[in-house]
Write a structure and sequence with these properties.
heterodimer, A: alpha+beta, Alpha-D-Glucose-1,6-Bisphosphate, Chain A, domain 4, B: about 180 residues, mainly alpha, about 0% strand, elongated
């Protein structure tokens, strides 16, 4: 297995033809950045638009259940895999992922979002072309801001 | 995860597990894709190291990207293993060609080329490593496919997109270079 979770997430993003994928360097230590990213229940609603709550048991897990509640009250169950520098979350409809690796005193951080059903693929391509890049960079900036504040 | 059959088919358990993961991954199951990636990475690494000894890490990443980019188009999940081998060897050859100065392969990887190196085993002399490093990348690819993967000439030729006679002559020359160095 590649020891670099960011390189690994790039492969998964390619396999999923993810609409949203970006990686950037954050000038903060890995522990601080991943401390934010891995704190899903507390931090994810600050990072993902239209997400009001994300209920998930704390700690690393190969597979654990989570419940996402949208701002309009829509509920969606997720499966979550969480390990140091590695997070994958998927529901019936969408996949989200984050990866981080220490890099020269800072952190290389990557994020992905993809749709699952084949019927949504055209939406994914359109969204990816129009908004994916900007949205994913905004996600990473917010992670950096929240890590700097903590 | 080598195999001993001439056509390169493999009935080892991890590859049986792969078929189910391939189907799930093709349906967009990211966790299955992650499991498949964990399963296939050591195999891809083992193929890439002797073929692209300098840039093997890049060759592994490029191979994995190519495998997962093409995954949805793979019609028969049972063919996953052979398909990964084809994609990986081609990517590793491409990557190795980008490197102007070729360097020696890792002795541990070379030592697995059992047919050539079964005489003594153990550490390779610097001389043998030098000989290996001077082999053209296509010769190293032939060595890997024939000696490490156990493919017959026809299958190796198909994979490398050359005539079977070319595989035969490359293998002959590679073995001959190797044996001369080994016996010094």
């Amino acid at each position: 297995m590649s020891s670099d979770p960011v390189a690994r997430l790039r492969v998964v993003a390619t396999g999923l033809r993810a609409a949203m994928y970006a990686e950037e360097r954050i000038d903060l230590p890995y522990d601080r950045v991943w401390g934010i990213a891995a704190d899903l229940e507390r931090e994810l609603p600050h990072l993902v638009p239209f997400l009001r709550e994300f209920r998930v048991p704390p700690g690393d897990s190969d597979r654990k259940a989570a419940l996402a509640v949208g701002t309009l009250g829509v509920r969606e169950t997720f499966e979550v895999r969480l390990a140091p520098g590695w997070c994958l979350m998927q529901s019936r409809l969408v996949v989200g992922g984050m990866a981080a690796v220490a890099e020269d005193g800072g952190t290389r951080f990557a994020v992905l979002a993809a749709t699952r059903p084949a019927i949504l693929q055209p939406v994914q391509w359109m969204y990816g072309g129009l908004l994916g890049e900007r949205r994913s960079r905004a996600f990473i900036r917010t992670i950096a801001q929240r890590a700097a504040l903590r | 995860m080598g195999d001993s059959t001439g056509d390169g088919t493999n009935d080892e358990e991890p590859w049986d597990a792969a078929a189910a993961l391939v189907r799930a991954a093709q349906d967009g199951d990211a966790l299955a894709m992650d499991d498949l990636l964990a399963l296939v990475t050591p195999y891809v690494t083992r193929l890439c190291r002797p073929i692209a000894p300098v840039d093997w890490a890049d060759a592994v990443q490029e191979s994995l990207l190519a495998v997962f980019r093409g995954l949805r188009g793979l019609r028969d999940p049972q063919a996953f293993y052979g398909w990964v081998r084809t994609v990986t060897v081609r990517e590793a050859v491409r990557q190795a060609r980008r490197t102007e100065v070729e360097q020696a392969a890792d002795p541990d990887d070379v030592a697995r080329l059992a047919g050539l190196l079964s005489d003594d085993g153990g550490e390779l002399s610097a001389q043998v490593r030098d000989v290996l490093s001077r082999l053209p990348v296509q010769h190293r690819a032939v060595l890997v496919l024939r000696e490490l993967e156990g493919l017959d000439e026809r299958s190796a030729a198909e994979l490398l997109q050359v005539a079977p006679g070319t595989v035969k002559s490359r293998l002959h020359r590679a073995r001959s270079s190797f044996r001369k160095a080994w016996s010094r």
